[in-house]
Amino acid sequence: MSDATTPRKRRKPKYEFTARAKGTSPEQQAEWRDRHAAPLDITLHRDSLLAYLEAIRVEPRFDSDTFTRVSRRLTRSGHPHFSKDVLRRGYLALVDDGALAADEEMLRRLTINPVRTLSGVAPVTVLTKPFGCPAQCIFCPDDVQMPKSYLSNEPGAMRALMLDFDPFRQVDERIRAMARIGHAVDKVELLILGGTWSAYRPDYQEWFVRRLFDAMNGVDSETIEEAHRRNEQAAHRNTGLVIETRPDHITPDEVRRLRWLGVTRVQLGVQTLDDRVSALNKRGETAADVRRAMRLLRGAGMKIAVHWMPNLLGATPESDRADFRRFWDDPAIRPDEMKIYPTGLLRGTELYEHYERGEYHPYTEAELTDLLVDCKRLVPDYCRLNRVMRDIPAPEIAAGVTTSNLRQIVQNKLAQAGTPCRCIRCREVKRESVDPGALDWRVLEYDTDHSREVFLSAVTPNDKLAGFLRLSLPTGPAPIAEIDGQAIIRQVQVYGPALALADESEGRAQHQGSGRRLIEIARQRARAGGFTRLAVISAVGTRAYYRRLGFEPGEWYMSSLL
Ligand code: SF4
């Protein structure tokens, strides 16, 4: 025990903030403003507009990936980047001028981006203000104008920068932009990006989330609780709130705080489960931290998305294969979603110094493709593989793979081998219509170190996913007393284009009944598992839906007797 006379040993901080450098040039910012804020100068941009429109017209099939590809090709050949919104305005002006004939198909291609809202909600991504992360991962970029780990010329980042990282303006602008190009925006999932959320000051976090809700509500609130309450009846209802953080920041208190803020999904920066590789890359955490974080988050009913980075310093394609297997073989991990971000070698990072000394080698495209093919084969039916590549602008990558359609290449290889990927994303129904009467209701169960997980799915005759539900039957205590001893629904997802809340069209309404059916099956499974109460982690804007299904609101969850 120490007393006033005993000199206290100063604890070495686990992390130190590092100096930050670099940023987007004033010219890049001015160019962005030109593109997004100022009215489009048709005369000045006429040739580029015509080049874009022609490139879009000649594509035999057109979806969001096609648009990204066309856009990349034209910017590489010296044309400015145009968003779809700008192109649409340019196209209409050229039709008005008589320079182009009106073409319905072209307008459709420039108007709607159906894939973006196919999962039923409009996603809105916002960035927190520039801030260092307490960790010192050697691969992580440090752009002084961005929250740690983001580059200001990454897609979406410049928008946040131009809006001063203001949460209200980011949401407001995005909702307006999506509505302008034809999306239903009454159901909104908010994704908060930016380094390590848990490292920001609590008062900043609270203000940030309140202002996100104020923007959806169209009216200011004094407290988080008031903002949440208003959102239950707002024009833009929140169907999910996502943050990203480090596993070692997840504590019982942090989980309670996240739930209080309204968080329903957490993106965990795991990067590796190999402690040797973790140490070499100065991650400052171990696989044991990841296991503990996942147990706490799962126990709170959160959906968990993990980030994994192959090709870190010290890894080889073989060690990465073994690392990837740990995510599924270890019952304490088994995430709901995953983003694979192959390490991008960026100048100015410590990893780059290793590269210059010949101690680090980025994988070749063939090595990376083979690795991703093998990884994708291992992804179980209950996981959604959201990404296999981070969208870092190619000029930022000092060496290594910059292929933008890597997912497609991997997908094709899997299809040729007759082993298509089974992950949720690859099996979602997308634009196909769903006959509710033909759905097969399947059950997949697996264990974690905290629960028996039940993955219920509604599958079409051609093996596509029309919807699914994640039910947790806990085997240990919950970190939040309100749901202790209860079975909990962690996610209900029914696919179909985002519908306005008032949309009563028959086929769609019928398919919405799939959610009800999934919940009924979940009730039966929970009862059979010996549970007497079923909770659901409901985002603020979905409370009315669960109320109609007999769930009553508690403090942070809704629940019903079984
Ligand atoms: S924890 Fe994430 S944001 Fe922080 S330094 Fe590491 S990679 Fe970058």
Write structural notes for this entry:
The chain contains 19 helices and 16 strands. It is an alpha/beta fold and 562 residues long. The chain folds into four domains: 26-111, no CATH class; 116-241, no CATH class; 246-427, Aldolase class I (TIM Barrel, Alpha-Beta Barrel); 436-561, Aminopeptidase (3-Layer(aba) Sandwich). Strand 15 and strand 16 (558-561) form a beta hairpin. Helix 15 crosses helix 16. The radius of gyration is 24 Å and the shape is globular. Iron/sulfur cluster binds next to loops.
List keywords for this structure.
globular; binds iron/sulfur cluster; single chain; 4 domains; 562 residues; 7-stranded mixed β-sheet; alpha/beta
Rough outline: globular
**What molecules are bound to this protein?**
iron/sulfur cluster
- Highest CATH level, the class of the largest domain: Alpha Beta
Tally of DSSP helical segments: 19
Quaternary assembly? single chain
| Biggest pleated sheet | 7 strands, parallel
The CATH topology of the largest domain: TIM Barrel
The percent of residues in helical segments reads 25-40%
Structural class: alpha/beta
Strand content: 15-25%
CATH superfamily of the largest domain: Aldolase class I
Tell me the number of strands: 16
- Corresponding CATH architecture of the largest domain: Alpha-Beta Barrel
